[in-house]
Amino acid sequence: MTTYQHILVPIDESPISYAAVEQALALAKSLNSQVTIMSVIAVDPFVGVDFYKVAPAITDYFMQAEKTAKERLEEIKQSFVRDNIEVDVKLIHGVSPSEGIIQIADEVSADLIIMGSHGRTGIKKMMLGSVAQNVLTQSPIPVLIVKI
């Protein structure tokens, strides 16, 4: 059996992220793995909006998103600390979620990614895309997808 020494767990605000965290906790504990939890502050959601008219709104959005992500990462980090699991946190900006996940996996030399998937299908998947699907197809390392 492959022993995973460094697990990457990308999270967002969804409940499915917390299910992935629970899987990562269990696996890291049983394999004595190091864990990195991460979030991506999404690429500009205001694409096509006149920047000069909405600059304060954009700044407020990104500041609030970063604050919320840092709080969520710290809260989740404590779950790993309580179980004596070596854990680090990463926050990345300016890239798509899937690009950020792949980038951080490479940066920390992760050998497994555990992430949640909303399980969208059909037209919803076509319209919204799928971060999990993108990571699955782009990642050079194994990806464990957790669904609830």
Explain what this protein looks like in three dimensions.
- There is one protein chain.
- Helix 3 (97-107) crosses helix 5 (131-138).
- This protein has helices at residues 15-31, 51-82, 97-107, 122-128, 131-138; strands at residues 6-10, 34-41, 87-93, 112-116, 143-146.
- The chain is α/β, with parallel strands linked by helices.
- Helices cover 51% and strands 20% of the residues.
- The two termini are 26 Å apart.
- The model has no long low-confidence stretch (mean pLDDT 85).
- Strand 2 (34-41), helix 2 and strand 3 (87-93) form a beta-alpha-beta unit.
- It has a single domain, classed as Rossmann fold (3-Layer(aba) Sandwich), CATH 3.40.50.620.
- Keywords: Cytoplasm.
